[in-house]
Model the fold of this input.
Amino acid sequence: MNNTLLEVDGVSVTFDGFRAINNLSIQIAEPELRAIIGPNGAGKTTFMDIITGKTRPDEGKVIWGERNISLLKMSESQIAQQGIGRKFQKPTVFEAQTVRENLAMALKNKRGPFDVLFFRSNPSIEGEIVELAEEIGLQDALDTPSGILSHGQKQWLEIGMLLAQDPRLLLVDEPAAGMTQAEREQTTEILVRAAQTRAVVVVEHDMEFVRRLNCKVTVLHEGSVLAEGSLDHVTANQTVIDVYLGR
Amino acid sequence: MRKTFISQNPSVLWFLAALGLFTLIVTILSEGFGLGIVSTSFIKTLGKTLCLCLIAIAMDVVWGYCGILSLGHFAFFGLGGYAIGMWLMYARTETIVVESLAGNIIPPTEQEVIDAIGTQIFGVVGSSEFPLIWAFADSLVLQLLMVVLVPGLLALVFGWLAFRSRVTGVYLSILTQAMTLALALYLFQNDSGLRGNNGLSGLQNIPGFEATPQATISIVFFWASAFALCAGYLFFAWIVSGKLGSVLRAIRDNEARVRFLGYHVESYKLFVFTITAVVSGIAGALYYPQAGIINPAEIAPIASIYLAVWVAIGGRGRLYGAVIGAAFVSLLSSWFTGGGAPDIPLGFYTIQWTDWWLVLLGVSFVAVTLFFPQGIGGLFDKLVRKQP
Done:
């Protein structure tokens, strides 16, 4: 594949003797929508931690972009500036601040303290914020403190903040957790639309949700790839059934 | 669509109006200019209180907005005081020495004058040599620069080391406390070059204004303090009301998340830590000429802890809260410890406020933390918001 955006190659991580990730190799193209499934402890979240710089692997390579840069030497903020956005399992928005402030902070602008100190909003930026809010269905809640939003709205706000960063790669950890049926459908739509122009990696437990995403699926087990392919393909795999679906 | 900074922050205007009115009333009532109802020593107390309000808003920005509980900001305050104190002491001693040597038949050489100043200043610690750190003491401009540079550089270096190692929370508080304790202990030594535990004194005498009565000097310093508080308030209100304030509050609430948004959290912390240290230094440089004396006890860790208590009682995360807290608690403190409060005889025991004030302060701190986590400023907010 020559449109590979992210290449994880032979990565291993050990926590106190426990091998969370074991010789893991995954390639993500751009654009692409990819779902990662696997039982608890399969290393899904650790995989995201490695890409975003939160965890340093013991061995292996993480290569990014056309110029094949290694992400392993970079800090979290540098990796984020490269164009990798992450949504956490628990919605983490800044609850003391309004939806507008949350989105404004995430918008792709210069990130240095002095750039931010002298930053002044303008109509085009305000327009971008309103557009994003419409995308995530929060256009009427722009000046609401995000702490009083519903659980599903917080999840969307966080997705909106991700989109505001305009990342090339979006890592989304369990976006549908705790959502109602209607909310799930809208979330699916947002993710599918986002994946038309960029790479989106969704970690999910919920098989129904993954089916709706209708994309290539990677099954993780004990820190490495067990199977890869369409959902029907991997769910037909006997080992996958044994370790995951059969339970 | 775009609003000006002031119209977005009506509380800034209210605060400045209140400060202006207060300054005017105090000036009219003062001995120096008007009716003489307020004594000169009380003018000094009020002027000092305004300086404490200034360091309190700096503390509020670093703690209430950015979430860094610094227990060392009084070190920067003290350093600012020492920096200006060196010039005040040097210039005044120089005047005295030159006057006393003027009677000599042979005019004194420059070196003789400097030696005599050295003996005057350092005789108390058994020395007469000027240490290297006094190199610029004869220049007001350079010492004013030191007021800003010394606290700023210390904060920059200390903050850089601490933040890049990702020291946070209570560990950072301990580290800042260790810094201020180390500095105080160092200054207590006689060979520290700043007169050990004697500190610098006679700072209320402003060189060149020997003939001006203290009544006038005190009111001028009161104005200067009010102006500095006004400028500091505007500056910090501007910082925290914009996008930077948004990022700072985000760092306070969840700094890991801010990192994943692409912000280099450490630079922000360093920026805030340094800028508030500089403002603390300026506050100290205005405070100590009104206090008249500075010694190492002033920068003992307890001072910085009081500062945190003022801001907590006043209400974190709102600048006027910090001002209310600092003014209220420090004035109350001088009332209680200065013998203003009447003792309470219980028959079997008499409550003397000089001893019991600290207990009262401690109890109110606990009470505020438990029952009004938003502090006095929070109560204020509720009152204002009730009106449509």
Observations:
- The mean pLDDT of chain B is 90.
